[in-house]
Amino acid sequence: MLARSLTAALQGIHGSLVTVEADVGLGLPGLTIVGRATGAVAEARERVRSAMAHCGHELRPRKQVVNLAPADVRKDSPGIDLAVAVALLASHEIVPAAALQDLVLWGELALDGRVRPAAGALVVADTAWRHGAKRLAVAPEAADEAALISGLEVVAVAELSQLVAALRGDRVLPRHVRTAALTEAGARGPDLADVRGLPVARLALEVMIAGGHNLLLHGPPGVGKTMLARRAGALLPALDEAAALEVTKVHGVARGVAARELVRRPPVRMPHHTVSVAGLLGGGTPIRPGEVSLAHRGLLFLDELLEFPRACLEGLREPLEDGEVTIVRASGVVRLPARFQLMAAMNPCPCGYLGHPERACIDPPTAVARYRRRLSGPLVDRIDLVVPVQPVGAELFDEPTAPEASAEVAARIEAARARQRERLVGSGWHANAQIAAEAGAIETLCPLRPAARALLREVVRTRRLSPRAQHRLRRVAQTLADLRAVTGQGRGEIDELELAQAAALRCLPEG
Q1: Is there a contact between 122 and 14 (Cβ–Cβ < 8 Å)?
Q2: What pLDDT sits at residue 181?
Q3: What span, in angstroms and rounded, lies between the C-alpha atoms of 123 and 247?
Q4: pLDDT by residue (tens digit) across 314-373?
Q5: Mean pLDDT to the nearest integer, 89-117
Q6: Backbone conformation region of residue 494, classed left if phi is above 0, alpha if psi is from -120 to 50, else beta
Q7: Least crowded by CB within 10 Å, which of 150, 244, 338, 413?
Q8: Alpha-carbon distance 505 to 477, whole Å?
Q9: Helix axes 450-463, 496-504, angle to 10 degrees
Q10: How far is CA 344 from CA 310, 347, 388, 439, in A?
Q11: Separation of alpha carbons 466 and 468, rounded Å
Q12: pLDDT exceeds 50 at position 186
C-alpha cells in the first residue's frame, strides 16, 4: 500500500514542503530511503525502526521504500524522522492514511520512541502555513516556537505512540496554547550618558542609526571607539512583526534552540577578529548562518577591523550591497538574509598611535601603508560615515553637565525614523541609507535648497567626488535634516548646514 505524509526541508532559513511517500510490497525485506537523503536523514532508518518497535508497532518483514519528494531538494535534518515513521505506519495500515491530510510532521525520533525537537521549527511552521497546511505536530519543547505562526494549529507530541493513538482516533491531542510571553529585560545595556566628550563620534553614531548608515571609527586605542559601540544597541528601534519573525528564524536555525517569543530587540553581534570566513559569512555542512546573518536587522560591530582576514572583509561587500549572502555549494545554492548595519573600528597604524597628540608612532611608513591596504577601496566606499576619534582631555570628566542619556537619543532616532517611513512609503525603502540612485529618487527624496546645492558643487570639485559619493553625501545630509526637523530646528530639507556636517562626517584616515 502507498501512503503519504508531509514534512519540510530547510535551506538556510527558508523551507520547502516535502512529501514522504512510503510503499510496501513484495521483495527482499528491507527499508530504503531515497530522494536525496543526506546527513542525519541517511541514518533515519535505524532510528525509525527502533522507535516503532519500542512503541509496539514492529513492522512485518516486507520490501519498504520511502521516497522524499521532490528529489532535487537536499534533506539533511533529523526533523524528517517523524514523517517517515508515520508514512510507514500508514503504508502498513496501522494508522489511517486519511488522517494525514494537511498535517505536517517535524521531530527527531529517539530509539525508545520519544520525539525530540529539531532545529528550525519556526521555519517549518511558516512553510506549512504558506503552503496551506492546517496542522503541525512537533516535540513539546518546540511547540511554543511553532505556535508563533498564527493561524496554524500546533500539536505537541511527546512520543510516537501518542501520535499513533491520536491518528487512529483513540485519544485527542489538544491544540497547543503558548505559555506566557517572556518579558524583555528593562535594561538595554550600558548608557550613552557614560560617554563624555567625543561630540563628533556621538553625532555620527546617532546619524548612523537614525538613517540606517554604516560607520567606521578610526583612532588610537583607548579613545572610546568600543565604548560607543557597546552603547549602540540601546539606540536601535524595536523590530516590527515581519522583521522580528525573520530574526527569530535565523537565530532558531543557527542555535538549534527553540524560541518561546519573537526576538523584538535588534541583535548586536561583535565577532572576534579571529573568526573564520564560514563563521562570519555562513557555511558548514549543513549550511548554518554566520555572524552577518545573526546580525540581520541589527548591528554588526567589527573591532580591530584591519585584523580580520582579507577574505572576511571582502566577503562583506555582497551583504552590504544586497542585504543577503549567497553560499554556493555543489549541492546547491543557499541564500541567507544579512541586512545589517556595519559599525567598525580600526587603529590608524599597527602600533595604533599615528596622529596621537602625546605618543609617537613607532611604525615605518611602509608598515603603515601595508596596514592601510588591508582596507580596500570598494569596501570603504560602502561605508557612509568615516569619523576620526581622538583622546579627550581629563578636564571633561569634571564637567557638571551630564551628556545625553541613551533614552533621549533613542527617542530622537525613533522620531527621525518615523519621518523617513512616511516619506519613503510605497518605495520599498525604510531608511535614507537604502535610497537608490534610480529614476531621480535622490532628487525627489533628498531635496537640496539652493545654498546646499552650491556647497555640494564646491565639495564635488574640491574632493573630486564620484556620482556614488555624491549620492552617499546627500543621504547622510537628509538624515541630519530629519534629526533637526524632529527637534524643531529645521524643515526636513537639506540646507547648507546639513550638507557641511555630512561632508565633515566622512574623514578618511590620512595617508
Answers
A1: no
A2: 57
A3: 11
A4: 999 999 999 999 998 877 789 999 999 999 999 999 999 988 888 899 999 999 999 999
A5: 95
A6: beta
A7: 150
A8: 10
A9: 30
A10: 15, 11, 12, 32
A11: 5
A12: no
Q: How many Å from the N-terminal Cα to the C-terminal Cα in the chain?
A: 76
At residue 187, does pLDDT exceed 50?
A: no
Instruction: List, as one string, the DSSP characters of 42-89.
Output: GGHHHHHHHHHHHTT-PPPS-EEEEEEESTTS-B--GGGHHHHHHHHH
Cα torsion at 139, 145, 146, 147 (round to 10°)?
110
Name the β-bridge partners of 116: 108
Picking from 14, 7, 178, 259, the residue whose alpha carbon sits closest to that of residue 109 is: 7
Contacts of 457 (CB under 8 A, 6+ apart): none
C-alpha cell at 206: 546617532
Q: Could you tell me the CATH superfamily of domain 192-393+403-421?
A: P-loop containing nucleotide triphosphate hydrolases (3.40.50.300)
Residue 122 is placed in which grid cell? 519556526
The grid cell for 73 is 531538494
Q: How far apart are CA 208 and CA 433, in angstroms?
A: 9
What is the grid cell recorded at 327?
Answer: 553560499
Backbone angles phi, psi at 328, to 5 degrees: -105, 125
Q: Is 398 helix (H, G, I), strand (E, B) or coil?
A: helix
| Span 168-184, average pLDDT | 79
Helix or strand or coil: residue 343? strand
Average pLDDT rounded to a whole number, residues 160-180: 91
pTM over 0.70: yes
- For residue 34, give the 3-state DSSP assignment: strand
Assigned architecture for domain 2-167? 2-Layer Sandwich (3.30)
- Can you read off the three cell numbers belonging to residue 425? 512609503
The x, y and z cell numbers of residue 232, run together, are: 549602540
Question: For residue 508, what pLDDT band results from cuts at 50, 70 and 90?
Answer: confident
pLDDT for residue 183: 46
Decide: 193 and 403 in contact? Cβ < 8 Å: yes
Q: How many residues does the chain have?
A: 511
Residue bearing the bigger pLDDT, 17 or 257:
17
Query: How would residue 510 be classed by pLDDT, with cut points 50, 70 and 90?
Result: low
Interior/surface letters 202-219, b for 16+ CB within 10 angstroms, e for the rest: bbbbbbbbbbbbbbbbbb
CA distance 492 to 419: 9
H or E, element range at 20: strand 14-25
Q: How far apart are CA 396 and CA 463, in angstroms?
A: 34
**CA-to-CA dists, residue 341 to 333, 384, 476, 499, angstroms:** 25, 11, 14, 22
